[in-house]
Amino acid sequence: ARKIRIAAAQMGATHLKDDRKETLDRMLALLDDAASQGAEVVLFPELAFTTFFPRHLINDPDELSSFFEHGGVTESPSAKPLFDKAREVKVDISVGFAEATDAGERFNSCVYYHAKTGSILSKYRKVHLPGDFEPFTDPEATNQLEKRYFKPGNLGFESFRVPELALSSEPIFGMMICNDRRWPEAWRCLGLQGVEMVLCGYNTAGFAPHLWGSDAKQDPQQAEEDAVFHHKLVMQSNSYMNATFSVCAARCGMDDGKYSLIGGSCIVDPEGRIVAEAKTKEDEVVVADCDLEICRAGKTRTFDFGRHRRTEHYSRITDQ
Ligand code: CDT
User: Fold this and answer.
1) Of the candidates 294, 288, 295, which has an alpha carbon nearest to the alpha carbon of residue 7?
2) In angstroms, what is the span from residue 301 Cα to ligand 1's centroid?
């Protein structure tokens, strides 16, 4: 057995004007909770330290800057206590944040932080940025201005090994962020590296007819049900098709009394089954024991890529 106890730290409503210290305190409490349940790795959501600010048009540069971590996330005063706590409780964390580089670039990023060595093992920058550069003209529409605030990620989909986890051999991890989970190419890039555990934090609007754009989704309740269905569909199917576990952590709930984000944080096994999932749309820790050994069946049989893929027919995927 190569067992890992993994946790998704789901975060409920986080409002635009919430004090960042309060949000950070919630994250510290979630980490304590997960640690007390014996979790070895805890995944936090996309852009976990603030509200989902890309829904707002923010023209004031100082205000916009206040949502970003500057000078390296582990040293940024508004994020550092989380990494310090991870070291203290000896639990690895993966967390999403808005990254401002010294060169003035901005990305929607996440890191995997190795508690034992106090170092970042891997960083990922979101590749698939949904939404638009310009806000909608309809004042009722919910914006998704990720193309305005972030550059597309430039680090690719790189798997990485985590030392001293899972006993007999080091597990292979990969990370993606929110909208990436809807793109099979992202999963396949990790799958081709033999990934055994995919981490994905997200903020998914429950009702955003201008974004999802289908008549069937005009009813907010139906729209949210569909959004949860599609979320689970992509997590379960892509985990199965790449013979990997996956963990996803939501920022969810009703932000500012009017922006609904779906819950549905869960842990999926390589057969595509949900083995643990959130019961609320609030701060909640979801924990599961994952035996990475069971990835082997899919990787050596149905999805033995070396034996069964026919790459001569796949060139359209990258040529177009
Ligand atoms: N944050 C993020 O990437 N959200 C997207 C919304 C898509 S457009 C409503 C998602 O794929 O969940």
Assistant:
1) 288
2) 33
